[in-house]
Amino acid sequence: MGAAFGTWSKLVADCKFCHIDRALAVHETAECLVFLDYRPVFPGHCLVIPKEHYETLADLPAALIPSLFTEVQLVSRAVESALGAEGSFVAINNKVSQSVPHLHVHVVPRRRKDGLKGFFWPRQSYRDETHIAEVRDLLRAALPSTMKL
User: Less Cβ crowding at N or C end of the chain, within 10 Å?
Assistant: First the structure.
C-alpha cells in the first residue's frame, strides 16, 4: 500500500482504499481518486472513489455527489475513447457484494458480445398490478424520511 491521501479528515486506518497505492491512479481531483481495479472484469475496469471515507452511497454528503458523478462520467467517456469500447457499465454495490467498505463506483468498458450477461442478475416479476402499486407506495412514503438536508 502507498501513502494515504494526506490531510483528509475522514480516513480509516484499515481501509484498503483510504491507503491505496497512488501508482494505480488513473486520475485525481480534490475530492476523488480513480484507479484500476486489481481484479478487472475487463482491462480498463476503473474504480472511482471519494477520497474521504464513506462506506455507501447513502453515507456520501449531498455536496460531494456532483464531484463523484462528474468524475464517473469523465471516466466512462475515457474508457470508451481510450480502449475503443462500445460502451461502459457503471455500478455501485452498497453493503451486499461490496468487497471493500469504502464507496466505489465501477466503470467497466463494454463491447457487444463480450460475454458479460447483464451482470448475472436473476429477474423477478411482481405478483400483479396491486403488488407494483404497493411497492411504489412504500418507496414514495420512505423518500421524505431518507432525504438528508
Answer: C
